[in-house]
Amino acid sequence: MGIIQKNAINTSIISYLGLLFGYLNKGVLFIIFLSTEQIGLISLILPVGLLLAQFSNFSSANIIWKFFPFFRDEGKNNFGFLSLNIFLVLIGSFVFSALFWFFEESISNYYITKSPAFVEYYYWILLVSIPTSFYTTFDYYLRAMYKNVLSVFVKDILLRVLTTVFLMLFVYDIISFDLLVQLICFSYIIPMLVLGVYLYKIGEWNASYKKINIHRRFKKIMWSYSLYSYFNMMGALLVVTLDVIMISAYLGLSENGVYSIVLYLTSSLLIPYRSLLRVSAPLISEYWKSNDIGAIDSVYKRISSISLVIGMFGFLIVWINIYEIFNFLPDSFEDGIYIFFFLMLGKVIDAYFGLNGTIVVTSKKFKYDIVFTLILIVLVVLLNVLFIPLWGTIGAAISTSIAYVVYNLLRMIFIWYQYDLKPFTSHQLKVVVLGTISFLLFYLIPINVGVDWLNILIRSIILVVLFAIAFSYFKIEPEIVKYIDRLSFNLKNKFTNK
């Protein structure tokens, strides 16, 4: 776990710096200076662009996860593995851009009634999708080499800083809202360029078809894998993207604006989990290469345990302050309280079982994962069609939560049956008990000093202290205890040295 912890800490630090800019943008500037309809428009264009990017990527990311360990050879330029994936994405981007053009009328008709503004920016989506397709391939290639920092920086900090700059230009009437949207879309080219230049600088850029030196038989294996894993990488993205797509079509851009802000809040709370998943995925592929089931089981349990703590704490730190937090928002965000509750419930479950997707798609049983992904897509669509007309945006959140539960349980049962791998440990029950006690404690003994920000501060400090004492004294989760002890030791040494 040394590699995982070191990389996860580095990427988490960068991600949290990016989170500050993200909150400044979506949590402050968007809410103050943009209408909910304008927020909804931006929050529809970007997810649709990212979804199209996943189609255009042609499963290049999964191919890198699965097969890069077999081609790692610096002396032979990794057999042109990166070049192969670049050409794959190039073909995918061309094919799906053509399809996007061909279906323009049908897609526009879907939105013209409730979200007509979206139709005006239809082709700007390609400026998001095409660069993101290539960025994703570069990112996963660097992940496979255990080089995560730059990829996280350009996505989590650079993009958000640029958005902040563009927003301030809009606030001071230097640019129009139309130009603001265009600049935000255009900025997605920059991460692709930065990673491309970096790959060239470290000698990994060999984008020439002649450089590809992979045996035909191995290519057939890779294409077979790509065919079956094509939709798998879109699973998590589809859940939230379909919500945004269908809310905009059924209810309009204003409702989508509210939903998107709350969705961003829930996603931000799980940044440490995503950092763990990001750096542990290449290790799972390495362990499959050597068929080290014991190592996979160990990583699976540890990541699940730590993710449960992260998810539980993230949910509680917001939920115990939920009314004060939403008091700072306009009245139009009132439904956001229960949107948060249901979305976060699903995301905690998804984080706990999060590594099971990586285990399946990098195993020899990867073909079965397409079944789970198809079930996920069907579930999300059917539940949204049923619940959105009934309960609006809260119905979309309930749909997402149910989909996460079913999707992850099916994957977990499959892994358990096929490889006897399961995420459960006895310590996790203690985490659930601690979370339940904390929830009831703040409910039964409300803390209210009459000032919203002071209520948030006091409750948050109490929760942090409660968790820290419980983990240290009762040894609830070994991995967390080790981290707390190591952090305390380092802080003590720094204080003593001074």
Q: Helix segment count?
A: 22
Helix content: over 70%
Compute the number of strand runs: 0
SSE string:
HHHHHHHHHHHHHHHHHHHHHH
Write the layout of secondary structure elements.
Layout: H1 2-33, H2 36-56, H3 60-71, H4 81-102, H5 104-111, H6 116-120, H7 125-144, H8 149-171, H9 177-186, H10 189-201, H11 216-229, H12 235-250, H13 253-268, H14 271-289, H15 293-319, H16 322-327, H17 336-352, H18 355-361, H19 369-419, H20 426-444, H21 452-474, H22 478-497
Helix pairs in contact: 1-8, 1-13, 1-14, 2-4, 2-7, 2-12, 2-13, 3-4, 3-7, 3-11, 3-14, 4-7, 7-10, 8-9, 8-10, 12-13, 12-19, 13-17, 14-15, 15-17, 15-20, 17-19, 18-19
Protein described:
- With 498 residues, the chain is mainly alpha-helical.
- The protein has two domains: 2-424, no CATH class; 442-498, no CATH class.
- Helices cover 81% and strands 0% of the residues.
- The chain contains 22 helices and no strands.
- The two termini are 31 Å apart.
- The mean pLDDT is 84.
Compose a concise summary of this entry:
The protein is an all-alpha fold and 498 residues long. It is 81% helix and 0% strand. It folds into 2 domains: 423 residues, no CATH class; 57 residues, no CATH class.
Provide keyphrases for this structure:
single chain; 498 residues; 2 domains; globular
